[in-house]
Amino acid sequence: MSYQFGVCTFCGTGCGHFLKTAGDVIEGVYPAEKHPVSKGRLCVRGWHIHELLRNSDRLTQPLIRVDDELVETSYENALSFLSDRIKKAKPDPVSDIGFLASPRSSNEEQYLLMRIARQVLGTGNISLDSEGWQQSSLEVINEGTGFPGMTGSAEEIDKTDFIMVVDFDITRQNPIIGSEIHLAAMAGTKVVTVDSRQTQIAKLSSDFLQVRPGSTEILMGALARIIIDEELVDLKKIKSSVSEYEQFKKAATKLELSAAIEKTGIEETVLRETARSLAKAESGMVFFPTGISGITPATVKMIFNLFLLAGKVGTPASGVNPVPGINNLQGGIDMGAVPNRLTGFQDVRDSKVIDKFQDAWGGEFCADPGQPIYELIKKHPKLLFVVDHDEGIIKNADDISKSDTVVYIGAYNNPFTKLADIVLPITPYVETAGTYTTTGRRVQLSTQKLKPTGGVKPGWEVLQMIAASQGHEWKYENPAEIMLEIASLTPNYKGISHDRLRSLIGGIQWPCNDEYPNGCKSFDSSKAKQVLKFVAVGNDPTPVEPTEDFPWLLMVGKAMHFWHQNNLMKKTFIPNREFNAELLLYPNGFVEVSREDAEKLEIRNGWNVNVVSPSGSVEVKVKVSGDVKSGTAYMPYFVKDMVSQFLLQHKQSLELGENASVPVRIEAIR
Amino acid sequence: MYLISKEDVKKIAFELAKDYDLHGPVKEDRSGQVFFQKAEDPASIDLGAAIPSNPAKQVIFPQLERIMKYRYDSQKKEAVVELDELTRPKALFGLRSCDLKGILCLDRFFLGQEFVDEFYLAHRNRLFIVTNTCTSPFPQCFCVCTDSGPYAVEGYDLNLTELENDFLVETGSEKGKKLVERLGLKKADPDKHEAEKKAVIDKSINSFDGTATDNKAWISRVTNRVTTGFITEENWEYIGNQCFECGACTFVCPSCSCFNVEDANVAEGETDRLRTWDSCSYEGYSRMAGDHNPRKPVEDRRNKRFFCKLSYSQSKKYLRPGCVGCGRCAWVCPGDIGLPNVVTYIRREITS
Questions:
Q1: What ranges in A281-426 are assigned the alpha helix state H?
Q2: Rg of the Cα atoms in chain B
Q3: What was the pLDDT predicted at B72?
């Protein structure tokens, strides 16, 4: 068979595909009809993954930095070079060692990296790259339900009665989930999109609530308030079955409805209608993004509480669904590549858990919560491990270059190698086996399709060699053995093995254990480990307001054909051409303004303007658009200079993710 | 007209495998998904399988194909070009008539105009085609409305139709005749077996979805509309809003011919020049020098594709409608704008 089943590894959707192999190359890709989520569809990225896999810009030789030059060497030499560095530097595990894990690595590789951090080098300083707010979203859901994952399922979109899409350009970021939502809308499901900019899914929704930038949290609070005021749900039942109701009620009703209307810009009738359809629907789901421009933890808390109030948590075909942009971000968190958790979200400070891992690992390990990696990087740790850093523009590049020893482990050549002192090449995912966990908790096996190229070793072998060079002999024969160990230590993964996954198109959704022997489509509150709980929300949200000098609110977001900072897309042909076409048209980027504002400014489509903020300015072309409201503007980041020279000046406001907005002034250039 | 028993029909495939690289419908073990692909073992070909998920065009117009390689020496400023030699000729066994019609459209595009595409020609010249009358249409199928099925009338070397006990074998070329003679097939009774074949075809047509058979003008009235341009902008926008710009409709289409040429490795040393599938639904596809783009908005690009499939001027180019009615675009579209649905949206406008 020249078409072999596999899993697309671009985004968190985890679509099923077939790769066409001929000898030692990949020649094509085709969608898998029987995949339970993608059902025979792929997006523009998925349709070109064979072009990426054909790319020859690979790392093929281990490299070490000698006299400021990277020189080729063997794996053995590179590792003894590392050992010497460690011996000399004597790094303190608490403050001097850091691990930046990749949300693209397989579960097996994430797990081994975590084991190296915790057991071999004795540090909890491990975080996932591009993590954004996936973990914090899971912390919110876990606090309220004891279930650390999407509580619903993309597979059940066609069964639900109400869907809300929040601040999420989902047809661009996770197109196949977006497709399911669109098809549900076509079939009559109520779909409500909440966003400050009219995205494609907004156009395809039954209702579009174009909120003022930064007011999503207020909107969610207002909806909850209306449900309580109008008693749209059985409040007595909620009070008796969900804890912390009074506290939540107080928070949700603190803001007057009139104030919410003013701050969100949404009319009262629309708010009431939305609250009623959410509360009255038999089932309902909400989707929001969690990547680097995801929505903030405070908003996630409000969304969670709103859906819990509306009875859409733990009931059939319902769910609170955070969606990461990168394929194995969920898996990375599941594998404990985070500072405070071991596998399956087990608390690293839990003594029973510690005993279990010590028994399995045959010795002590660091069970202290670590520091978040980007905090640590600013302090220039002596030793920094980085896996498959997927970003063209490296945040904190200056800080990273000040670390003594940077070890880079990756398959493709990329800008990070310039900062590395030791480069250890690994194979791309098709040259080894591994499992990946989608946003829907779906653990899928990607089998080996090609032989490793030219002496390059798979990641799990390289990680094992690193452990061995530090005196830890692990002796895993293959990735399947690693998964057996993971399953034995992780209650949510208990029933998962490569053997079991091999025959399944679409894998198994965790938890897969005695309670859910065949996996779990959606969280069932009758099987919950705790009483459902409203999570505490913080202070009143205060959206950024425009000023007299800076009267526009600038939103920042993603551009078409520019996913995950483009490091992968630019290795393809067609999506890369599409990106270049955009770049040629807008070499310095563009800013979208409304027709009304364009008239006011006396500017036309394609003219240049200065976008001026309190801390900088940038000259870009104007795109006049019906997608933004008057008084707001939108700027996608896809031009390197624009990001590094302008947007990074606003790091603090941009850390608010999809809610981010910067007050600016737009000046016509005449 | 000849007969071959059902047990023996694969003998044709085994015979072809001696001289040709054999391709046909093969079921994938794990998922049961059917691919039209190279069959190392002729026995793996399944004539009763569902319509292959991929169009047979990929055999002669692959998703990604090296068309040459070259080595560039920057010191000497010298490039050495090497053309790949085609290996063995190819045989398509068990092709459905929709996929054959797709190849006939590609012929018109790659060979039928003043420019002849050498690479396509090299695949095409030596092709041996065995079609198989389609007896199991899918709900999305509408080849009866696009003059492309469920049976083949031209363009094959051999055509098979499954009768009660035997396969009827019709020859369409000298090559086909020779193969039949080599296998020593017994002659069919022209009257009796022709009638049996007709009964099989009628039964197949009756099993099509109602939309396709009740109203034969389903497609043709829309073709008229698309040609004359009497379709409101709002309707194109409604269609365009649903386009996810994935390109899938183009890739799965048996008659879509858009391609791109790229050098895989631009560094020093050996480089592959590749031809890849492309799609007119991509904005960059129609971008021209000086940033002009006649098809910038997505709805314009959608409109272009349907113009290519359903207009008289394009039909003149292909000598038939550009759409072959296989319905694959409806399977793979993340929007809801596979061609049958677009036809429905346009008809809705006509009737309202």
A1: 297-309, 329-334, 351-361, 373-377, 397-401
A2: 22
A3: 83
Q: A162 and A278 in contact (C-beta within 8 Å)?
A: yes
**Contacting residues of A for B264, CB less than 8 Å apart:** 54-56
pLDDT at residue number A598: 94
> Tens digit of pLDDT for each residue in B279-337?
988 888 877 777 677 766 766 776 778 888 998 888 888 888 999 999 999 999 999 99
Half-sphere exposure of A82 (CA within 13 A, CB side): 27
Task: Read off the pTM.
Answer: 0.94
Burial class (CB in 10 A: 0-12, 13-18, 19+), B221: middle
C-alpha angle A301/A318/A436, rounded to 5°?
80
Helix intervals (H) in A146-215: 170-173, 175-186, 200-204
> Which helix or strand (DSSP H or E) is residue A579 part of?
helix A574-585
With bands split at pLDDT 50, 70 and 90, how would you rate the model's confidence at B116? very high
Give the residue among A403, A128, A423, A410 at the shortest CA–CA distance from A292.
Answer: A128
For residues A535 and A220, what is the distance between their CA atoms, to the nearest angstrom? 14
Tracing tokens 């497609």 back to the chain, one arrives at: B219
Mark yes or no for CB contact B37/A3 under 8 Å: yes
The interface predicted TM-score of the complex, written ipTM, equals 0.94
pLDDT(B84) > 80: no
Q: Take residue A268 and report the two structure tokens written for it.
A: 């009262």
Measured CA distances, A171 to A6, A132, A176, A458, A628 (Å): 22, 20, 7, 33, 18
Name which of A179, A183, A581 is nearest B284 (Cβ-Cβ). Answer: A581
Residues in chain A, pLDDT under 70: 1, 131, 291-294, 390-395, 558-566, 638-660
Name the strand (E) or helix (H) holding B349: helix B339-351
Q: Does B260 touch chain A (CB under 8 A)?
A: yes
| Residues within 8 A of B (CB atoms), A 186-225 only | 186, 200, 203-204
Q: Decide: A560 and A582 in contact? Cβ < 8 Å.
A: yes
Cis omega before residue A511 (within 30°)? yes
Query: What is the phi-psi region of residue B291: left when phi exceeds 0, alpha when psi lies from -120 to 50, beta otherwise?
Result: left
Contact of B284 with B107, CB cutoff 8 Å:
no
Percent of chain B whose pLDDT exceeds 70: 94
CA atoms A260, A262, A263, A265: torsion sign: positive
CB of A499 within 8 Å of any CB in chain B? no
What pLDDT is attached to residue B233?
87
Q: Rounded to the nearest 10 degrees, what angle do helices B339-351 and B298-309 cross at?
A: 90
Written in H, E and C, the secondary structure of A444-471 is EEECCCCCCCCCCECHHHHHHHHHHHCC
Q: Tell me if A2 and B28 make a contact (CB, 8 A cut-off).
A: no
Percentages of chain A per state (helix, strand, coil), in multiples of 5: 35, 20, 40
Strands lying side by side in the sheet with A319-323: A207-210, A190-195, A162-166, A285-289, A319-323
Contact A28 B62 (CB under 8 A): yes
Output the pLDDT for position A541: 75
Q: Mark yes or no for CB contact A582/B291 under 8 Å.
A: no
Mention every residue, 6+ apart, whose C-beta is less than 8 A from residue A122: A93, A365, A366
Residue of B248, B340, B260, B252 lying closest to A175 (CA atoms): B248
* Helix, strand, coil distribution of chain B in percent, nearest 5: 40, 20, 40
Exposed (0-12), middle (13-18) or buried (19+): which is A95, by Cβ within 10 Å? middle
Q: In what order do the strands lie in the sheet with A25-31?
A: A3-7, A16-22, A25-31
Q: Is B32 on the interface with A (CB under 8 A)?
A: yes
CA B189 to chain A, closest CA, distance in angstroms equals: 39
Question: Is residue A111 within 8 Å of A474, Cβ to Cβ?
Answer: no
CA torsion sign for A153, A154, A155, A156 is positive
* B64 close contact with A: CB closer than 8 A: yes
Measured CA to CA, the distance from residue B293 to residue B288 in angstroms comes to 6
